Amino acid sequence: MSRAVRIRGDELETERGARAKKRSLAVDRSTSPRSPGDLAVRRSSHSHPEILFAIFEPDEAQSGAKQGGVCDVVESATEESSDPPSPPIYEPYIPDELAADRVARAAFKLAEAKYRAEKFRVAHLFTMDHYWHKPYSCLRKDRRLLPIRELARDAILSATKSVVLLSSFLENQPLNKCCGLWFQRDDQRKTALVLTSAHLIRKDDIHKWKRQWTGEYHKNAKVIIHLLDNTTTPGHLIYLQEHYEFAIYEVQVDKPVHLPTFNDRVHSGQDVFRLGRDANLDIKIIHGNLAYDIPTRYERCHYMYFLRDASSLKLLHDDGGPIIDLEGKVVGLVNNQINETFVPSSILHKCFDFWRRFNCMPRLHLGMTFSPIKFLDPICIERMTRKHNIDSGLIVEQVSKESHAEKIGIRKGDVSLKVLMESTFLLQLSWKAC
């Protein structure tokens, strides 16, 4: 017959860790080879079975029912805490008729000292710190999120396992801070890869780089990864993608890291959460909605937008943090907390496919920039449909000088339909390895 297990707030982490390891082994033996944990990673190939990548779910994939099982772990009486429970200590009281008695007063002062010591000890238990460190999460204070609160809580707690904090330094002087995501791990070499924003090593001149598409990057900057167990480890830059503004760092790790699942399926208006970590490694959460929009002249055409709640405060230094959906899957990587833009997972998916196959991330060049008609105001779309019978396609915003598009007669203001786009791809594809 199973017995309840008592977990004390002041129990040593090592003791809890040993018991947790035993329980996890029991669960592993009881699950099938296709356990829920297997869904979070994908092995690279038969030649390197020890290398695991984060999973990307393609746009055409249909979300099915969640797979998983329920496991009952029966714990024996020996699994209980080794030290017996301390007797409860109540606030002492001395009757008035004994107040003048020296023996009674001495006993009262001793009991009072024990009571204060016990009260101090209990106040500093990890199970009691929520009384002193009040949460400021939107899930606690925003009643509008009540319909999705439980779903969002589980999604966030799942996703935070892969979110870390990174710091960069130039000659031991702080440069920037960003968040990052574990992206790949090699269990044989005991290494892992962290995906983060390129702003981690970008020259810290906000007023200048906001209006530039390229910037100065300190590739030799010292980078430190702050692990969730409050230890730190150095990171080694292995790839920098300046156009999409993200970087990949290799880290030496002693134990496996949690890899996230990326989701390419996103739609405008869906509920998402933007995650970051502060200097204490506490998670920061902001609720918002996804938005497609026409970028300004200072923004990249691949940007997607995070529309935060008006009551939410901006997260500072959270570039590189993930945007997650209500299933805890990553739909994008924050790359500009000032304009609240991010790189969608669909682009990250394509970039990493190229990187694994060719060890670089080539980028297609058409020599044009576009504005989708579907992102215009409905009044403009209706007017265009009524007068010109056009309700879809891409409006050409810019044409590069001496590009193939310019040579075949495409000009600013033209409408590019799907057929024209396909023919343009076939006529000329200019590749540039960024």
TrEMBL record:
Bias kind Basic and acidic residues: ranges: 7-18
Region (Disordered): 1-45
Transmembrane feature ranges: none
Protein origin, superkingdom: Eukaryota
Protein name per the record: Uncharacterized protein
